[in-house]
Design brief:
344 residues, alpha/beta, Endonuclease, Chain A, seven-stranded mixed sheet, 43% helix, 10% strand
């Protein structure tokens, strides 16, 4: 099952609704133009969402003129549907306004077109969080003395702007990181083969640890982080971790964030000690444009600009929240020397 909702404005949210636990992919995307979206409604959504879904509530922060009103979903039976029309997510839209909305069964091809459109929008969004809401300015809803509503001003700028750090020696650091990524590409087939062998139990965790330590190291020139994994990682369940990484490798690009979130939450639940620094580096090496390393400089950057993940988010949702924000940071700073998250 899949569910995608896009609405120019969000002013109400029915917390009696239930998100099906079997829903494989979900996005709720709202706009911020004119300050019409209400903070209380956003807070209601954040409280309503399960911990693992809190990074799937997005705002079109980098789009102006965002005014769609549509819902697309695929049922467990594989049927695809659409509701599209004039109604935003507001009480008036469903109780007092004169609106026109169309419900229709649609083809798989039409659903795929809608999915690509949702992907394009989502790439220009950031997750809604308490930090984002603190900066967002609602329009004044009070009426003027003659009874008319005050005219809201359009919101052209993003609520959150990302100013990326430029430390001393940045060019030297970037050159070193690019060399490490190039070295990884040469050893990637062998590294991925070790993961697949361990996932399919052709080798055990101890053998996995030994082979990975030879293929991915400072001597090989393809390791991004400092020491520590040798001591902390040895006791991890690498069979379990390899299953997670292979599931991510085999996922379609559109589904990858959901698979990463799900697998990280599964590894967290089992207490796998290699799920953070080690797995995030493997993700960053394999998908440098999509996933960051979970290290102190990255988390300190978001803390410094006061843009943390939604409270109550699961570990997997927090990582996807981080990835989406760093992607947005690079996208909105086209002149920044780093070309992807692996070089960040």
């Amino acid at each position: 099952m899949e569910l995608y909702v896009v609405s120019a404005y969000l002013t109400e949210w029915n917390t009696d609704l239930k998100l099906n636990a079997e829903c494989r992919s979900f996005r709720l995307i709202v706009g911020k133009d004119f300050g019409i979206t209400r903070k209380d409604a956003c807070r209601a959504v954040l409280n309503w969402l399960p911990a693992g879904r809190k990074a799937d509530f997005l705002v079109a922060d980098q789009l102006s003129g965002f005014h769609p009103k549509a819902v697309f979903w695929k049922s467990a039976a594989g049927q695809c549907f659409m509701v599209i029309g004039s109604s935003n997510l507001s009480r008036a839209a469903f109780h007092s306004n004169v609106e026109a909305n169309v419900f229709s069964l649609i083809s798989e091809d039409a659903f795929e077109v809608a999915n690509r459109w949702i992907d394009w929008i989502a790439d220009r969004c950031v997750p809604v969080s308490q930090d984002w809401l603190d900066r967002y300015v609602e329009a004044d809803q009070r009426a003027t003395p003659d009874g008319r509503k005050q005219r809201a001003k359009p919101t052209q700028r993003a609520v959150v702007t990302f100013k990326l750090p430029r430390p001393r020696g940045l060019q030297r650091l970037l050159l070193r990181r690019r060399e490490q990524l190039m070295a990884y590409r040469k050893s990637r087939p062998a590294i991925l083969r070790v993961f697949r062998d361990c996932a399919e139990k052709r080798i055990d965790s101890e053998t996995f640890y030994g082979r990975i330590a030879r293929l991915w190291s400072w001597d090989a020139g393809n390791r991004l982080q400092g020491p520590g994994w040798e001591r902390q990682g040895r006791v991890a369940n690498f069979h379990e971790l390899a299953i997670a990484f292979v599931a991510i490798l085999d996922a379609k690009k559109r589904e990858r964030d959901d698979v990463v979130r799900t697998q990280l939450d599964r590894l967290k639940a089992s207490g796998n000690s290699a799920r953070r620094a080690f797995l995030s580096e493997m993700l960053c090496l394999r998908f440098p444009s999509e996933y960051p390393i979970l290290n102190k400089p990255v988390t300190e950057f978001l803390s410094k600009i006061h843009f943390s993940a939604p409270r109550g988010a699961s570990e997997g949702a927090k990582y996807i929240d981080l990835a989406k924000k760093l992607r947005a940071a690079l996208r909105t700073n086209p002149g920044y020397p780093a070309r992807n998250l692996g070089q960040r």
